[in-house]
Give the backbone structure.
Amino acid sequence: MKMHLLIVDDDRNFIDTLEDGLKLKNVDAEVTVAKSAREALEALGKVLPSLIILDVQLPDMHGVEFLRTIRAASRLQDVPVIFISAKYTEPADRSEAILAGGGSFFSKPVDIDELWAEVKYLLDKKK
C-alpha cells in the first residue's frame, strides 16, 4: 500500500526540501501539501493520510490546537503526527505537542535521515 503524507507547513522552502529528500530516499509516497490549518482540514475531508508532518506555527492556528481539533474526529485519532518547528523548540513546547497526541517533535532545520527514520518507526508502530 502506498504511503500518503500530509505536510502542513507554510514554508515553501521547507516543503521543497522535504519533498526532494523523500525523492532521494526513493520513498514511494503520495504527498499532499497544505499551507494552513484550513487547507489541511479541507484535505483531511478528502484523504486519510498515513502520517501528518505538522508545523507548530501555522498562519491561522497553532499546530497543537490543530492536532486537538483533528483528534476529535474518530477517523483521525490514530494518524501519527510529527511536529516540526523553527520557533517553538523549548522543552515545554515539545511536551505540549506530545501530550496533545503528537508522535514526535523535530526542530528546523530537520535532518531528513532522522525524520525519515521517525516516519518509518511511527508507521511500523501503527501496524
